[in-house]
């Protein structure tokens, strides 16, 4: 029992420290980082005057809104979209795989038209309510359109008048498809077929959903830029963060001795686990996310402090080490549960109702607190049990309790 | 050892808090906040130097004009380079003469360059995001009150929320009084502070709840019980705030210029969050409790006399 516990404890400690030293850096750096930490692609779009539409302030503001919608629909974390001067827009995207394709999608005017055989435009993109990519039973990718009530009526009229003839659907003046009308369509729905990949269908649907740009824009510059926080600041803050965590680890050792070491081991396991889950979720880390991590580390440490303080209290009241540990855990758990659940509730709300940086914060905090319930409570508990069962510590001071306050009997 | 009566001196603590918050609110209305370029927009300067320059040197130069927290990005092939010919700087709005000074300073310190762009740029954070953040936060507060009311009682929930409003107000006050710049990361800092504040308060409330259940008889001294609960959890309160402070102070001292205001907000907020759990939330809970006890006693009295 004694040797077995000691063996388990030693294996766990060596394993966690080993994994931590070996994996923490590569794991941390393999997580995708946002614009503020990593930089990304910097694109400058410029509004161009055409005979149909001249560039003005109002039009450019609308372009910003539509491009915002398009960027958000791409699922990128915290992009920057910013007006520059009179007719330019800066778009900064974090880690896109294919920047050229992204820019192409962003800059498309995306003017949709439905024309009859005489070339008269009957409907346009503003008559749409929704557009989604779909795959039909034959495995063909298509974009399904849903018209607004007004648009549905126009479309019904168009199809009724053109039974037996072809109508054409155009995007930016190019024919996408020209189907033959077999019968009037009154349901307010249509599909755009054509051989395209699911990704293309997705992009087309995205463009149609976000609406047409009021003016034509062209991309005048694309380049890679460094982090918005500045590479210098980032390097310094990385160093600072390492020092901070190091100090916390040292703190726990000084305050709580042997249990402090256990808490440090749990903390390392916690950091690894959190990074691993973030990596698996393919999350993008930004400064708000790091704030969430700092707070969750604080709470993980707090859970252990709570447990150890209860433990010390129970020891002082004359209980044996094992008994003090058991009741210390029981009492601390109620507190940890209530304080952490409150935090989890807040994180869930922020995640579902927040946008941009708020979500980034909520996801790391929420995940962090859930994971720390496991490491700071369950893992610490087992490690401490093994520590006590292995019977290697005889001096109560190594449990962070001064010997004067503990009766001789209790230690044995 | 006789402990200092913390909750008995609640007037002092309320006084200190009110002083900071009232001064802060007056300042918010008169001087407002020093909003960063994320909210206000500013000037973008895009330069191509003849020789590659170090980002650190660019920032040191900007620091001479109190613009060290400007957004400075290098561009080129690798996004993690620390030196490059292409430097893009976003600063707050500069006057003509300020801009000329900065441009001259950069040339003197770092060598000659070609100006690729020099234009006004707009805000990157819209009011929508801020309003959305406010609503999400308010909703989370309501749910926190609901949860605490369910697990404890409504008075605890109310006191916890008042404490976190207190903390938020203090941080806002300090930022208005010191005119430190508020940027997008400030929102995250406030959320972090709120999270810490609630968590810290609940630990003390949990102890009060435990003591109420185990050691309290009707008509007992509630102040004594609250004080005892505070002292029983005091070591934990101090250790926990120390660990988060160690982390953020390291970030403040050793971290970069662009994260200084962020870590400053966290330092103020964590300190305040730990303070308010003891000196604001607990006395408030007693105030609410005494008030409702009095009302109940009055009610009992009324029903008795009515009979």
TrEMBL record, chain A:
Q: How does it sit in the membrane?
A: Multi-pass membrane protein
Q: What's the chief localization of this chain? A: membrane
Q: Which GO terms describe its molecular function?
A: protein-transporting ATPase activity
| Residues of the SecDF P1 head subdomain domain | 120-215
> Which InterPro entries does this chain map to?
SecD, SecD/SecF_arch_bac, SecD_1st, SecD_SecF_C, SecD_SecF_C_bact, SecDF_P1_head
Q: Where in the cell is it found?
A: Cell membrane
The residue ranges crossing the membrane are: 7-24, 239-256, 261-278, 290-311, 332-354, 360-384
Q: Where is the Protein export membrane protein SecD/SecF C-terminal domain?
A: 216-388
Q: Which GO biological process annotations does it have?
A: intracellular protein transmembrane transport; protein targeting; protein transport by the Sec complex
What SUPFAM superfamilies does the database record attribute to this sequence?
A: Multidrug efflux transporter AcrB transmembrane domain
**Keywords, sorted A to Z:** Cell membrane, Membrane, Protein transport, Translocation, Transmembrane, Transmembrane helix, Transport
Assembly with partners or alone = Forms a complex with SecF. Part of the essential Sec protein translocation apparatus which comprises SecA, SecYEG and auxiliary proteins SecDF. Other proteins may also be involved.
Per the record, the similarity remark reads: Belongs to the SecD/SecF family. SecD subfamily.
Q: What is known about what this protein does?
A: Part of the Sec protein translocase complex. Interacts with the SecYEG preprotein conducting channel. SecDF uses the proton motive force (PMF) to complete protein translocation after the ATP-dependent function of SecA.
Instruction: State what protein this is by name.
Output: Protein translocase subunit SecD
From TrEMBL, chain B:
The reply on keyword Nucleus is no
| An example molecular function term from Gene Ontology annotations | protein-transporting ATPase activity
Q: Which branch of life, at top level?
A: Bacteria
Q: Where in the cell is it found?
A: Cell membrane
Q: Name one process (GO BP) from the record.
A: protein targeting
Keyword terms = Cell membrane, Membrane, Protein transport, Translocation, Transmembrane, Transmembrane helix, Transport
Q: Which Gene3D superfamilies match?
A: 3.30.70.2040, Multidrug efflux transporter AcrB transmembrane domain (1.20.1640.10)
Q: Which family does it belong to?
A: Belongs to the SecD/SecF family. SecF subfamily. In the N-terminal section; belongs to the SecD/SecF family. SecD subfamily.
The protein's name in its UniProt record: Protein-export membrane protein SecF
Species of origin: Pectinatus brassicae
Give the gene name.
secF
């Amino acid at each position: 029992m004694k040797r077995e516990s000691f063996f388990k404890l030693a294996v766990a400690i060596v394993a966690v420290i080993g994994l931590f030293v070996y994996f923490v850096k590569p794991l941390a750096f393999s997580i995708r980082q946002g614009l503020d930490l990593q930089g990304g692609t910097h694109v400058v779009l410029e509004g161009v005057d055409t005979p149909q539409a001249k560039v003005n302030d109002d039009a450019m503001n609308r372009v910003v809104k539509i491009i915002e919608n398009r960027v958000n629909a791409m699922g990128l974390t915290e992009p920057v979209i910013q007006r520059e001067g009179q007719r330019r827009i800066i778009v900064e995207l974090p880690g896109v795989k294919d920047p050229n394709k992204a820019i192409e999608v962003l800059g498309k005017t995306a003017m949709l038209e439905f024309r009859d055989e005489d070339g008269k435009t009957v409907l346009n993109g503003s008559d749409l309510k929704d557009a989604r990519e779909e795959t039909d039973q034959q495995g063909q990718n298509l974009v399904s359109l849903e018209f607004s009530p007004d648009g549905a009526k126009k479309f019904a009229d168009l199809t009724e008048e053109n039974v037996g003839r072809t109508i054409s659907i155009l995007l930016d003046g190019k024919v996408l498809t020209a189907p033959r009308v077999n019968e009037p369509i009154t349901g307010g729905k249509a599909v755009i077929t054509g051989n395209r990949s699911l990704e293309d269908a997705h992009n087309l649907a995205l463009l149609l959903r976000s609406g047409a740009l009021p003016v034509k824009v062209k991309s005048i510059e694309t380049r890679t830029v460094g982090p918005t926080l500045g590479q210098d600041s980032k390097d310094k803050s990385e160093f600072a963060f390492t020092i901070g965590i190091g100090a916390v680890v040292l703190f726990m050792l000084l305050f709580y001795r042997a249990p402090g070491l256990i808490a440090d081991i749990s903390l390392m396991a916690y950091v690894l686990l959190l990074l691993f889950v973030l990596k698996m979720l393919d999350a993008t880390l930004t400064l708000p996310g790091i704030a969430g991590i700092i707070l969750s580390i604080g709470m993980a440490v707090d859970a252990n402090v709570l447990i150890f303080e209860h433990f010390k209290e129970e020891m002082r009241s004359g209980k044996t080490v094992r008994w003090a540990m058991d009741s210390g855990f029981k009492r601390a758990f109620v507190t940890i549960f209530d304080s952490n659940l409150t935090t989890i509730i807040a994180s869930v709300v922020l995640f579902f109702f927040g946008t941009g940086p708020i979500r980034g914060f909520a996801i790391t905090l929420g995940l962090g607190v859930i994971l720390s319930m496991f490491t700071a409570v369950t893992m610490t508990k087992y490690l401490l049990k093994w520590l006590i069962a292995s019977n290697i510590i005889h001096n109560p001071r190594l449990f962070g309790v001064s010997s004067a306050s503990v009766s001789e009997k209790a230690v044995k | 050892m006789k402990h200092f009566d913390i909750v008995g001196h609640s007037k002092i603590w309320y006084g200190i808090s009110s002083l900071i918050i009232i001064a802060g609110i007056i300042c918010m209305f008169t001087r407002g906040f020093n909003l960063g370029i994320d909210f206000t927009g500013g000037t973008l300067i895009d330069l191509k130097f003849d020789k590659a320059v170090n980002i650190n040197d660019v920032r040191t130069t900007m620091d001479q004009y109190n613009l060290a927290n400007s957004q400075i990005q290098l561009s080129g092939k690798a996004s993690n380079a620390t030196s490059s010919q292409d430097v893009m700087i976003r600063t707050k709005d500069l006057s003509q003469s300020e801009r000329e000074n900065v441009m001259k300073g950069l040339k003197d310190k770092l060598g000659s360059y070609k100006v690729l762009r020099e234009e006004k740029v707009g805000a990157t954070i819209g009011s929508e995001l801020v309003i959305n953040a406010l609503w999400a936060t308010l909703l989370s507060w309501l749910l926190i009150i609901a949860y605490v009311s369910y697990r404890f009682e409504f008075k605890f929930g109310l006191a916890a929320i008042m404490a976190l409003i207190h903390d938020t107000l203090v941080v806002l006050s300090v930022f208005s009084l010191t005119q430190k710049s508020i940027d997008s990361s400030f929102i995250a800092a406030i959320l972090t502070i709120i999270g810490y504040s609630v968590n810290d308060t609940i630990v003390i409330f949990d102890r009060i709840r435990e003591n109420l259940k185990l050691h309290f008889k009707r008509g007992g001294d509630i102040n004594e019980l609250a004080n005892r609960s505070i002292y029983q959890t005091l070591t934990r309160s101090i250790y926990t705030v120390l660990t988060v402070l160690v982390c953020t102070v390291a970030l403040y001292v050793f971290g970069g210029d662009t994260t200084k205001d962020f870590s400053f907000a966290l330092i103020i907020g964590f300190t305040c969050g730990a303070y308010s759990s003891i000196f604001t939330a607990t006395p408030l809970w007693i105030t609410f409790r005494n008030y409702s006890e009095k009302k109940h006693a009055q009610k009992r009295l009324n029903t008795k006399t009515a009979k």
